[in-house]
């Protein structure tokens, strides 16, 4: 098998006249945590459902773990660990019953089931919850249960659709530690998110906006190949100078954060610090800074809108 775990070519999906995923081509290499970043409604879940063989494409091709989707969708569904955006376990069944049920679907025998369920309950801190019904669990507990369910068969590919929505910061951090632990065992992960700090943690990203891919690459490459420069302006009253920045043609975006203004400038501004200093005035200081994934996101989505 090649070292590409997911490949899509010209993948599109329409709902009536509306194009939810538009001509998406992407390759996800094995052994990476690959982020699928985009705002709500940008087509992430629709693309994921096509990758999992749960929704037929309107156009284009999908290959997952070397198998064609939808032609081999049934095998793909059994081979991929998929954590849905909405909780999809049986609410009336207990934590343990849900996990045993999933094992049966995957054809594990009784002793394999017992061992594996015990293992994942320990790994995802579900032991104390084993006889609790799944329905009334907290958001974070449900997410841990769903992740345990997705890894039961030790799949080579895990697709996690906004796995950390509705969880507190501690659980979020714990879940990201699990993702890297799972990836270290040779499982590739595609994880969708709209959170910039989660995107920063991935090896590589595909960035979506309005159904289209607007950028992809490793996190480091996305930042260094950014078509813009970022300057921090600080001084007595940055709120009062923000309108001047927003009005300037050279400025892609300006956003206040505490006593600082983060200004993203077009690359063709030759001397960005001097330029920002000139707009801000003598009482302010301007200094170049490294781009973040949030800056990348702002720039690539504004480029898309200009086209
Ligand atoms: N079954 C459907 N019927 C009609 N529109 C849909 C359907 N599923 C998704 N959409 C629309 O497609 C767009 C993309 O949705 P989705 O893939 O869920 O985005 P994301 O996961 O990035 O939030 C949204 O505008 C959504 O309303
Ligand atoms: Mg979604």
Explain how this protein is built:
With 307 residues, this protein is an alpha/beta fold. It folds into 2 domains: 4-217, P-loop containing nucleotide triphosphate hydrolases (Rossmann fold, 3-Layer(aba) Sandwich); 227-290, Alpha-Beta Plaits (2-Layer Sandwich), CATH 3.30.70. It contains 11 helices and 14 strands. It has helices at residues 44-51, 73-79, 95-105, 110-123, 139-151, 169-184, 196-201, 219-224, 238-247, 272-280, 293-306, and strands at 4-15, 18-29, 33-37, 59-64, 67-69, 80-83, 157-161, 188-193, 204-209, 212-218, 228-234, 251-257, 260-266, 285-289. α6 (169-184) links the parallel β7 (157-161) and β8. The chain starts with a strand and ends with a helix. 41% of the residues are buried. The model has no long low-confidence stretch (mean pLDDT 95). Adenosine-5'-diphosphate binds at residues 15, 20, 38, 40-46.
Task: Please supply descriptive tags for the structure shown above.
2 domains; binds adenosine-5'-diphosphate; Rossmann fold; elongated; six-stranded mixed β-sheet; Alpha-Beta Plaits; 307 residues; 11 helices; four-stranded antiparallel β-sheet; alpha/beta
């Amino acid at each position: 098998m090649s070292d590409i775990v997911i490949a899509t070519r010209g993948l599109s999906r329409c709902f009536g006249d509306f194009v939810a995923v538009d001509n998406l081509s992407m390759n996800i290499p094995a052994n990476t945590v690959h982020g699928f970043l985009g705002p709500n409604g940008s087509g992430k879940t629709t693309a994921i459902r096509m990758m999992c063989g749960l929704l037929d494409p309107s156009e284009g091709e999908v290959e997952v773990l070397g198998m064609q989707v939808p032609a081999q969708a049934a095998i793909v569904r059994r081979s991929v660990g998929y954590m849905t955006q909405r909780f999809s376990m049986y609410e009336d069944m207990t934590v343990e019953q849900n996990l045993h049920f999933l094992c049966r679907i995957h054809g594990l025998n009784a002793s394999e089931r017992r061992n594996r369920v015990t293992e994942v309950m320990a790994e995802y801190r579900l032991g104390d919850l084993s006889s609790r019904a799944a329905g009334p669990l907290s958001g974070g507990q449900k997410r841990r249960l769903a992740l345990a369910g997705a890894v039961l068969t030790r799949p080579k590919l895990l697709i996690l659709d906004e796995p950390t929505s509705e969880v507190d910061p501690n659980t979020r951090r714990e879940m990201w530690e699990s993702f890297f632990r799972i990836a270290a065992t040779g499982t590739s992960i595609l994880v969708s998110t709209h959170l910039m700090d989660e995107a920063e943690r991935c090896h590589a990203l595909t960035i979506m906006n309005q159904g289209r891919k607007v950028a992809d690459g490793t996190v480091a490459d996305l930042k260094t190949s950014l078509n813009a420069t970022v300057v921090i302006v600080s001084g007595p009253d940055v709120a009062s100078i923000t309108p001047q920045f927003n009005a300037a043609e050279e400025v892609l975006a300006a956003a206040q954060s505490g006593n600082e203004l983060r200004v993203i400038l077009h690359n063709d501004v030759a001397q960005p610090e001097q330029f920002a200093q000139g707009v801000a005035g003598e009482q302010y200081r301007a200094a170049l800074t490294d781009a973040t994934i949030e800056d990348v996101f702002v720039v690539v989505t504004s480029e898309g809108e200009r086209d």
